[in-house]
Specification:
Blueprint lengths: L1 E6 L6 H10 L4 E3 H9 L6 H7 L4 E2 L2 E2 L1 H8 L3 H25 L5 E5 L14 E6 L2 H9 L6 H10 L3 H7 L2 E4 L4 H28 L9
Parallel strand pairs: 1-5, 1-6, 2-5, 6-7
Antiparallel strand pairs: 3-4
Helix pairs in contact: 2-5
This protein binds dephospho coenzyme A (COD) and adenosine-5'-triphosphate (ATP).
């Protein structure tokens, strides 16, 4: 089985691209979605989060705006939250891998793949990237997002240029959705036909489209 990691900074298109891998028949584990599930009403992490950050949960689960205010920009608080959340996400990821052990390929969509060392545990890393102004416009269009909140999140993430430098495969999301989809379909076909090594050589010789610098 080929285990692919998918990463990219906020708004670069991880979820959209993960959906394209799923459409191509690749089982996808979505770490952000898992966090949201664990923090939703009745979620397994609600008691621990309420104990550590009083007043940040209610009948609907975690109040994400409030919890975000409590931890974004406060490194010690964020570390406490991550110590609650990340082990639970890791357990869900292991269960996903066990469930799909017979698949030829799986994709782990993990925003902090490089930051938390997960890149060593996958066979290859796919990075999604678009020009910074495109990224900013996408994120600022989201309800409840402000420029300040975006900057705080970006400050926690490895810069896009470094992610691209460390990528095995780059998927350009600054183009039309159809073009991105075609790149994903081509990559999946190449990986299925030839495996990771050959495709890395193939990507280096530019047959898989790369984002512009
Ligand atoms: C702080 C919280 C409550 C904010 O929730 P909110 O709904 O506003 O944002 P959302 O979860 O959709 O994330 C927005 C963006 O921030 C990124 N992000 C979230 N947590 C972190 C983090 N610890 N470090 C860097 N980036 C992060 C996400 O990947 C995404 O790109 C939430 O993100 C959270 O609980 N974070 C801690 C868990 C975590 O580390 N998740 C990221 C990967 S598993
Ligand atoms: N070529 C493209 N490829 C991918 N996404 C695109 C493209 N063109 C436009 N988009 C849009 O950009 C947005 C990307 O958002 P998406 O939620 O996929 O990003 P993300 O990296 O998962 O964000 P976050 O880190 O906040 O979870 C989507 O609304 C998507 O439809």
């Amino acid at each position: 089985m080929i285990v692919l990691g998918l990463t990219g900074s906020i708004g670069m298109g991880k979820s959209a691209v993960a959906g394209m891998f799923a459409d191509a028949g690749v089982p996808v584990f979505d770490a952000d979605a898992e966090v949201h599930r664990l923090q939703a009403a009745g979620g397994a992490l609600i008691p621990a989060i309420e104990a550590a950050f009083p007043g940040t949960t209610n009948a609907g689960g975690v109040d994400r705006q409030r919890l975000g205010q409590a931890v974004l920009g406060d490194a010690a608080a964020l570390a406490r939250l991550e110590a609650i959340v990340h082990p639970a996400v890791a357990a869900a990821r292991r269960a996903f891998l066990a469930r799909h052990m017979r698949a030829d390929m799986v994709l782990l969509d993990i925003p902090l793949l490089f930051e938390k060392g997960g890149a060593n545990a996958v066979d290859a890393v796919v990075v999604v990237s678009a020009p910074a102004p495109v990224q900013r416009a996408r994120v600022l269009a989201r309800p409840g997002m402000t420029a300040e909140r975006l900057d705080r999140i970006l400050a926690l993430q490895l810069p896009d240029a470094e992610k691209r430098a460390r990528a095995d495969f780059l998927i350009d999301t600054g183009v039309a959705l159809d073009e991105t989809r075609a790149a994903v379909v081509a990559l999946v076909a190449c990986l299925r036909d030839h495996g990771v090594r050959y495709c890395q050589a193939c990507a280096k010789s530019s047959s898989i489209p790369k984002p512009q610098d």
